[in-house]
Write a structure and sequence with these properties.
CATH superfamily of the largest domain: Oxo-4-hydroxy-4-carboxy-5-ureidoimidazoline decarboxylase
Distance between the termini: 24 Å
CATH topology of the largest domain: UraD-like
Number of domains: 2
Low-confidence stretches: 1-10
Shape: globular
Radius of gyration: 17 Å
Largest sheet: none
CATH class of the largest domain: Mainly Alpha
Number of strands: 0
Mean pLDDT: 90
Structural class: mainly alpha
Helix content: 55-70%
Length: 159
């Protein structure tokens, strides 16, 4: 039995599939700032459903060259903390970010999908401290995987 998408969930994907290439690319660049990733996804439209688009996005993310990954990492903001996070936490997190950026040359990226705001701070601090022990090549692989997960989350919420 085939399920049909509801108009509310089908409309954004349909608009993406039929949008001019430049407009579709701008949408994708808000999900992951990689021209190669964006070009590949735009070129393979239309997608029959969101899972097909997400699968294509994953595949394109796995195929990012080192330069493509550098481009995507350069555009990433730091993970946002809940608004009511206390000042000492911001200080600790800023120090951890500075150490990470000094060691690896790019912003720390992490997918926080599925975490409650109460878990965010501890999760980010634990992850950044743990990942500071990675070798640079290993950390690029971890960062690439986090970017892939972020792109999936952003695509899902956008489309």
């Amino acid at each position: 039995m085939q399920t049909r998408a509801t108009p509310a969930t089908a409309a954004p994907l349909e608009r993406f599939n039929t949008a001019p290439a430049a407009e579709a690319a701008l949408t994708l660049l808000t999900c992951l700032h990689s021209r190669a990733w964006t070009h590949r996804l735009v070129a393979h439209r239309p997608y029959p459903d969101l899972p097909a688009l997400l699968a294509a996005a994953d595949e394109a993310a796995y195929d990012l060259s080192p330069d493509d990954l550098t481009e995507a990492l350069a555009a990433e903001p730091r993970p946002a903390l809940p608004e009511d996070t206390y000042a000492a936490a911001h200080t600790a997190l800023n120090a951890a970010h500075a150490a990470y950026e000094s060691r690896f040359g790019h912003v720390f990226v992490i997918s926080l999908a599925g975490l409650s705001p109460d878990e965010t701070l501890n999760h980010v601090l634990t992850a950044i401290r743990s990942r500071l022990n990675n070798e640079p090549d290993e950390e690029r692989l971890v960062a690439a995987e986090e970017l892939r997960q972020l792109a999936r989350t952003r695509l899902t919420s956008t489309l």
